Amino acid sequence: MDLGSELTMAIENRAFLQVCRGEKPERTPVWIMRQAGRYLPEYREVRKRVSFEQLCRTPELCAQVTVQPIDRLGVDAAILFSDILVVFDALGVDVRFEPGPQVEHPVRSHADVARLRDGDPDVELVYVMDAVRACKRALADRVPLIGFCGAPFTILSYLVEGGSSRDFEHTKRLMYAEPVLFGRLLERITELLCKYLAGQVRAGVDAVQIFDSWAGALSPFDYRMHVLPHVRRLVSHVRSFGVPVILFARGNASLLELVAGVGADVIGVDWSIELAHAIVSVGDDKIVQGNLDPAILLGPPELIETRARALVRAGKCARGHVFNLGHGILPATDPAHARHLVEVVHDEGTYERDR
Ligand code: CP3
Which of 132, 171, 210, 331 is spaced 20 to 30 A from 204 at the CA atom? Predict the structure, then answer.
C-alpha cells in the first residue's frame, strides 16, 4: 500500500520530500528540530493560556503552533506539534511536564508491565490524529508535514526511569538482569508505535521522524543486540505505507553504521561528529540530515553564516542532505538568528551554483 507518493503530489514546496526520496531538489531543504517551541514569542504567548499537556491535547492549538515557524522562518517542512511521551496515554501511564517529564509510577517489574493498558492509539491518541488533520488544513499544502514518535528504547527509558536520566541505571539493570522482560516490554512498545505511526500516516503526515534520543546511552554491542531489531521492525512497517522515514539516534556517533543498516530513508546525524565523517560512516549512497550544533545559533550572524555554508557544502558529498541542527533548537535562541540560518542555507544550497 503506497499512500505516500500520491497524496504528497499537491505540495508546493517539494524540496524536502524530493531529498527523502533520493531525487535532486532545486535547493537544499532545511527544517529545525524543535522549531515550534519556547524560543518563539508567539509560542510563549499561547503557553501563557494553556499548559503544555493541554496544548498537546488541543488539535487547533497544535496546528497554530506547528505553522508558527513556517511563517516566521521559511523552513521547508513542518513538524507536528506534540511530544514523544503522549503515547503513555495508550499504556495508561500518567506523565507530567514540570517542565521535564515525570512519570508517576515508573515501570520496573513483571507486575508493572502486566498492569500496562493495551490502548488503541486511534482511540486513546485520537487528539494526535486530529492534530495531524488540523495541521494539514492549516498548512494548505505549502510544505510537507512530518509526523514523529520516540524510538522503542527511548520510550522504554522514560517509562522505566520515570523521567530524564544521567546513567540509565534502572533501564540497564532491566536489560542486563531481566533481558526477557526487557525484550517483552520493548516489543509491546514497538507494537504500539507501529499502530501509532500508521494512524499518523492515515491522518495525513507526509514523512515520519523516529527520535532515538537516548540511543547513545548504549554501547554498539547492546544497541545491536537488544534494540536494533525493534527499530528495524518499526522502520519497515512505516515504510510499507510509502512515506519516508528519518531515523535520528542521538548521542553516540559510533552507532551510525548500525543505524544506517536499518533501512531508513534518511539518517539523522547529531552535532558530535563532522558531517563529512558521518557520510563516510553511513556510506555516500545514503541520505543524511543534520547537523549544526544548536548552540551556534547563540553566536553572531557572521559565525552562523560561515558554519552553515560549510555544512551545506559538506552535505553535497552525500547522496542527499536535509539541513537541520544536530539536536533541538535552544530556548534562548534569537528567532532572527534561526531565520538567518534558513536564508543562508537556501542561498548556499541552490543547485544553480553547481551547474
Ligand atoms: O517543534 C517540534 O520539534 C515538535 C514538537 C516536539 C516537542 N517534543 C515539543 C516539546 C518534538 C518533536 C518533541 C520530541 C521529544 N520530546 C523528544 C525527542 C527529541 C529530543 O529532544 O531528543 C524528547 C526526548 C521529548 C521529551 C520531552 N518533552 C522532554 C525531555 C521535555 C522537557 C525538556 C525540554 O526539552 O523542554 C519535553 C517538553 C517539550 N516538548 C516542550 C516542547 C515545546 C517544552 C514544553 C513547554 O514548556 O512549552
Answer: 331
**Interhelix angle for 301-315 vs 275-282, to 10°?**
20
* Residue type, position 142, single letter: R
Instruction: Give 135-183 as a DSSP string.
Output: HHHHHTTSS-EEEEEE-HHHHHHHHHHSB--SS-HHHHHHHHH-HHHHH
Evaluate: CB of 33 within 6 angstroms of ligand 1.
yes
Range of the domain at 41: 5-354
CA distance 254 to 104: 34
B/e letters for 262-289, b = 16+ CB within 10 Å, e = fewer, are bebbbbbbbbebebeebbebbeeebbbb
Number of domains into which the chain is organized: 1
User: Rounded to whole angstroms, what are the CA distances from 24 to 16, 186, 354?
Assistant: 10, 37, 12
**Separation between Cα atoms, residue 330 and residue 5, nearest integer Å:** 33
**Residues 6 or more apart in contact with residue 229 via CB below 8 angstroms:** none
Q: What is the pLDDT of residues 37-76, one digit of tens each?
A: 999 999 999 999 999 999 999 999 999 999 999 999 999 9
3 state SS of 101: strand
Cell of residue 113, nine digits: 508491565
Question: For residues 76, 268, 191 and 54, what is the CA-based torsion angle, rounded to 10 degrees?
Answer: -50
Given a cut of 70, whether residue 6 has pLDDT beyond it is: no
CATH number of the domain that residue 198 is part of: 3.20.20.210
Mutation choice for ligand 1 from 45, 57, 84, CB with most ligand atoms inside 8 A: 84
Number of H helices, E strands in the chain: 18, 9
Measured from the CB, is residue 78 less than 6 Å from ligand 1? no
Taking residue 66's Cβ as centre, other Cβ atoms within 10 Å add up to 25
- pLDDT above 90 as % of the chain: 95
Flag whether pLDDT at 355 surpasses 50. no
Using alpha carbons, select from 32, 99, 85, 97 the residue that is nearest to residue 328. Answer: 32
